[in-house]
TrEMBL record:
InterPro entries: KIB1-4_b-propeller. Residues 94-347 form the KIB1-4 beta-propeller domain. The lineage of its organism: Eukaryota, Viridiplantae, Streptophyta, Embryophyta, Tracheophyta. This is KIB1-4 beta-propeller domain-containing protein. It comes from Brassica oleracea var. oleracea.
Length: 378
């Protein structure tokens, strides 16, 4: 049973409703609620996906997708047939694995040849009959860098098919790469080496408000931004954060937090224009699993003031292996406000800001991506 389905009768009921993007005018597009894949039934040539939605009374939908976009870990004990598949003549280095998602587009990497491809096959609003797949040029590895382990992918637009869309790929280590998919067949990678090691394991996001790609540094002290329109040299701009109203943890809380792996996520609210920094503290349990033990949310001002808050109002934040996003809860009946939902390979978690209460569930997620609201076009 999914934590997000069982946590509250108002959260993640498995039936989809078409919802308008805003409560106002009739010109606003119909959208799917936030969702994730909660089932993937294997078939010889594809998998049948089922989705868990945040809203009740939403017609349950299933769709088909390529097997390799869901079952792509040959070392996964629950899919031992994958190892047999590679014994039949395929090389492990030739396997395509998913490495991130942004705006409903999932990115896969074909190891061995370094080809990154964008797919809408897992998008709940995309067509089964006419899936869109966009291949990008072969990755270029900078000296003393690597392009096999990727932290995440970010798109500057809703679709990589848009003329001005830029794809950003953050690799583990100093390399950050950009590509414009629609460059009339002349697309290529622009590669940047980040000097500051605090950004080596961080995730990139696109700020629509600032029209820049931004990365929070490890520890949350710095934010680096790249203005690809004005700065042809791609020199980062750095913003130093100053924290305010930090809570004083108890001795027991401090002992736990000192043993945790901390990750930082920048999230932007399109409806309010606010920027949030979310710090997640995860502790190793059972020698292999990571479990969320604490979450801290900060409002970040243009001047770099990071103000601790337990009240983000009508907003709800979604963090997963996809690019994080934020929605206005009242726009999607059934979504609970003032919460942070988290999804990882082996964990689902819900954090209530008002009382700092965390609920977690250990469960294998074949596609650990939250999908933001998608426009219904058919």
């Amino acid at each position: 049973m999914s934590l997000l389905l069982s946590h509250s009768p108002k959260i993640f009921i498995r039936k989809p409703v078409l919802i308008r993007a805003s409560a106002g005018g009739s010109s606003s597009p119909l959208q799917t609620p936030p969702c994730y894949i909660d089932g993937a039934k294997f078939a010889p040539d594809n998998v049948e996906l089922s989705f868990a939605y945040t809203c009740k009374d939403y017609p349950k939908r299933k769709k088909k997708a390529p097997v390799e976009l869901v079952y792509n870990d040959i070392n996964d004990p629950i899919t031992p047939w994958l190892a047999e598949k590679f014994k039949e003549g395929n090389k492990v280095s030739d396997a395509a694995v998913t490495i991130g998602s942004s705006h409903g587009w999932v990115a896969s990497l074909l190891h061995g040849v370094g080809i990154l491809r964008l797919h809408d096959d897992l998008n709940p609003a995309a067509s089964d009959a006419n899936p869109k797949r966009i291949s990008l040029p072969p990755l270029v590895t900078l000296p003393h860098c690597q392009t096999q382990i990727i932290t995440n992918v970010s798109l500057s637009s809703l679709s990589p098919g848009e003329e001005d869309c830029v794809v950003a790929v953050k690799f583990m280590g100093p390399q950050l790469s950009f590509c414009r998919p629609s460059a009339q067949g002349n697309s290529k990678w622009f590669n940047i080496r980040i000097a500051n090691p605090s950004f080596y394991s961080s995730r990139v996001m696109f700020s629509k408000k600032h029209n820049m790609f931004r990365i929070p540094g490890s520890g949350g002290q710095l934010i680096a931004s790249w203005d690809l329109c004005k700065d042809i040299k791609h020199t980062p701009k750095f913003q130093e954060l100053v924290y305010h109203f930090l809570p004083e943890p108890t001795e027991a809380e401090r002992e736990v937090m000192d043993t945790c792996l901390t990750t930082e996520h920048l999230v932007e609210s399109q409806s309010t224009g606010e920027t949030f920094l979310v710090r997640c503290f995860r502790q190793t349990v059972n020698k292999a699993l990571l479990e969320t033990k604490a979450v801290m949310v900060f409002r970040v001002s243009p001047r770099g003031n990071a103000v601790y808050t337990q009240d983000i109002g009508d907003l709800t934040i979604f963090i997963s292996k996809a690019e994080p996003f934020c929605v206005r809860a009242s726009s999607f009946p059934g979504v609970s406000p003032n919460r942070v939902y988290m999804l990882d390979v082996m964990e689902q978690a819900c954090f209530k800001l008002a009382d700092s209460f965390i609920t977690t569930l250990t469960e294998r997620m074949m596609a650990p991506y939250f999908f933001p609201p998608q426009n219904i076009e058919y």
